[in-house]
Amino acid sequence: DIQMTQSPSTLSASVGDRVTITCRASQSISSWLAWYQQKPGKAPKLLIYKASSLESGVPSRFSGSGSGTEFTLTISSLQPDDFATYYCQQYNSYPLTFGQGTKVEIK
Amino acid sequence: EVQLVESGGGLVQPGGSLRLSCAASGFTFSDHYMDWVRQAPGKGLEWVGRTRNKANSYTTEYAASVKGRFTISRDDSKNSLYLQMNSLKTEDTAVYYCARVERLQYYFDYWGQGTLVTVSS
Predict the structure, then answer these.
(1) Does B63 touch chain A (CB under 8 A)?
(2) N or C of chain A: less Cβ packing under 10 Å?
(3) Above pLDDT 70, what percent of chain A?
(4) Chain segment B66-75, per-residue pLDDT in tens
């Protein structure tokens, strides 16, 4: 199974900050990586697919990069609506696997 | 508008069974693979399994943790996805989400709101 490891697990930041979350795969997944945002009591929402493609309707302050085993999600200027938990997910091979999540908290 | 609505969750004793449903609307259900993903209370997301579409013979994939106990099926005539859960364990307690798989690249592009399954005596 491909293990997905996110860092940090928790991140404290202020509105307007630039935020970067890292996701590492235990083996190469090419660019078959998605990022999701989840708020408490809600379903996850797709932000980024194929490592760097922005889902329609998602604000342009979100961006993704990377390939192989190292990936990042960047929020260029954190907004109040962005405080949430973020998950990476590989869809290169079965079983599909998620990172453990990164909670972005208000500083 | 794409909508996925899960139902069928509830309280069940260990060793019991439960069947979840996911009603889909707003898209051509039969074209898409469909998955189940779960989230234990306070924990992260865990993929449960997948059913492919008719063009791919409705074949299925499962996580090791549920293989042999859970069965995913679909009824394209009813635009519905199902998860039959047998021999339930306390560790199966979670919110269960159905998710649509994007047709060409296979990520999850839409999710339902989830249904809670609690396995407890």
Answers:
(1) yes
(2) C
(3) 100
(4) 999 999 999 9
